[in-house]
Write a structure and sequence with these properties.
The protein is mainly alpha-helical. Helix content is 70%, strand content 7%.
Length: 507
């Protein structure tokens, strides 16, 4: 029992000793591990501290370099600004010196001007006193006389300058315009035939008049009702006259009446059929003529209705000149001049062809054909340049493009060339005489001459009654009076001539 107790005690002691030794060994092992870990952490911390120190030194060096560069940049900028300020200071100094010099010169000139002004005042006073002494005039009367003389001298000088400038400008413009227009006329050089709308239908015999009239006048009434024209059957042998304000209706009536005369069967029922067929034929001719004009001028893409209006111009005349032929000729002339001047050739041609398009409907719409034509162009959405050229070709509106001016010139050339238009001798002489009489009615006019078939009036004035500025006013007054009093085609140029002649004889 005791032995077992001792054994247990010994075992317990050994166990305690063994446990103590094991705990001590474990503790030492952990302490050693902790110590090694602490040493590693310390080494790592030292390494990181060294790296941080190096990075801080590098950052400081970088900041120092950047600061030095910034300082150098600012120093350079300051030096540059300082040089600029120095240059400006030098420039201001030079300007100041120049201003001082100019001020000195101005002061000197002002003194000279004051001196000359005083001299002029003295001379003026002497002249006034001399005038008063010679003419026994008062100072106010002498002053008025002097002012009138100075004004007359100034007017003469001004008129001389105006005349010189106008002469130079006119000479250059006329020379260039003559070159361009001459070249255009030479290049177009096509034969044009003056046509008139036929209003008389020949008959094979006088018996045909009775057949046209019909029993109780039924045939002639049927023809007039179907065509919208008036048939005049008078004492003219073997002819019937067709009267209508509409040239297309007149042409339809002419064609229909010709067919009825050839056929010989003239009765109300057949008249309506023949008139419808004649209308179709005339419409086909109108369309064909419009397309032919487009092709001849070289224009494409126009509205078909506008082409028909162009074709209707074939049946319109102006002073004996066929309007369609005149429009084609105007288009060619405008296109050639546009090519010479570097303008828009297709647009000039199109405006030239359409410039008289208003004449196709002037029998239906009231107003000048230029304005009517512009309204038609606006309705068909043509370009504004073409609308302006149509509206301005008779100077009823201001021309805003070069093409519009060229259309004006081409229209005038086509209408004014020899053989383009016809008028009776009596009306021509009457128009020319009225033009000369109107010009001679103004005071100061010595002679007046109507030239260029009445397209220009030249007036010679009395130089002792009208001065150089007076002729400018006179030309405007005569032009205005012509516009108000006379009816004329196109435009009339008014030229007033004033000249002084001194004649002497050597004996």
């Amino acid at each position: 029992m005791i032995g077992r107790l001792i054994t247990n005690i010994v075992v317990g002691v050994l166990a305690f000793a063994v446990g103590y030794l094991l705990r001590k060994y474990g503790t030492e092992s952990r302490l050693k591990a902790i110590r090694e870990s602490a040493e590693n952490m310390l080494a790592t911390a030292k390494t990181r501290l060294q790296e941080a120190d190096l990075e801080a030194k590098a950052a400081v060096l970088k900041l120092r370099d950047e600061a030095e560069r910034e300082i150098n940049r600012r120093r350079t900028e300051l030096e540059r600004q300082e040089r600029r300020l120095q240059q400006r200071r030098s420039s201001l100094d030079r300007r100041f010196d120049s201003l001082e010099e100019r001020t000195h010169k101005l002061d000197t000139r002002e003194k000279q001007l004051d001196s000359r002004r005083n001299e002029i005042d003295q001379l003026h006073n002497k002249e006034l006193e001399e005038l008063q002494r010679i003419s026994e005039l008062t100072q106010d009367d002498a002053k008025q006389l002097l002012l009138e003389r100075v004004e007359a001298d100034a007017r003469q000088d001004m008129a001389r300058v105006i005349r010189d400038v106008e002469a130079q400008t006119r000479e250059e413009a006329d020379r260039k315009a003559q070159e361009i227009i001459t070249l255009a006329i030479q290049r177009i050089a096509s034969d044009q035939v003056s046509e008139t709308t036929v209003s008389t239908v020949p008959l094979p015999n006088d018996e045909m008049k009775g057949r046209i009239i019909g029993r109780g006048g039924r045939n002639i009434r049927a023809i007039e009702a179907a065509t919208g024209v008036d048939l005049l059957i008078d004492d003219t042998p073997e002819a019937v006259t067709i009267s209508s304000f509409d040239p297309v209706r007149r042409e339809v009536a002419r064609v229909a009446l010709g067919k009825l005369i050839l056929d010989g069967r003239i009765q109300p029922g057949r008249i309506e059929k023949v008139v419808k067929k004649a209308q179709q034929e005339v419409e086909a001719v109108i369309e064909e003529e419009g397309e032919r004009a487009m092709y001849e001028v070289g224009i494409h893409g126009l509205n078909p209705e506008l082409i028909k209006l162009v074709g209707q111009l074939k049946f319109r005349t102006s002073y004996g000149q066929n309007v369609l032929m005149h429009s084609i000729e105007t288009a060619h002339l405008a296109g050639i001049m546009a090519a010479e001047l570097g303008a828009n050739v297709p647009r000039a041609k199109e405006a030239g062809l359409l410039h008289d398009i208003g004449k196709a409907v002037t029998h239906e719409v009231e107003g000048p054909h230029a304005r009517i034509g512009a309204d038609i162009a606006e309705r068909f959405a043509l370009p504004p340049e073409i609308i302006n050229a149509i509206a301005a070709h008779h100077c009823e509106e201001e021309a805003t493009t070069l093409e519009a001016v060229l259309v004006q010139a081409a229209d005038a050339v086509s209408g004014a060339r020899p053989g383009a238009r016809r008028e009776t001798l009596e009306s021509y002489i009457k128009r020319v005489e009225s033009l000369e009489n109107l010009a001679s009615s103004f005071s100061g006019v010595e002679r007046s001459y109507a030239i260029q078939a009445g397209r220009e009036i030249r007036i010679v004035v009395k130089p002792e009654e009208i001065d150089d500025l007076g002729i400018l006013t006179l030309s405007r007054d005569i032009a205005k009076k012509v516009e108000e009093s006379l009816q004329y085609p196109g435009q009339i140029k008014v030229t007033v001539i004033r000249e002084m002649r001194a004649v002497d004889y050597a004996k």
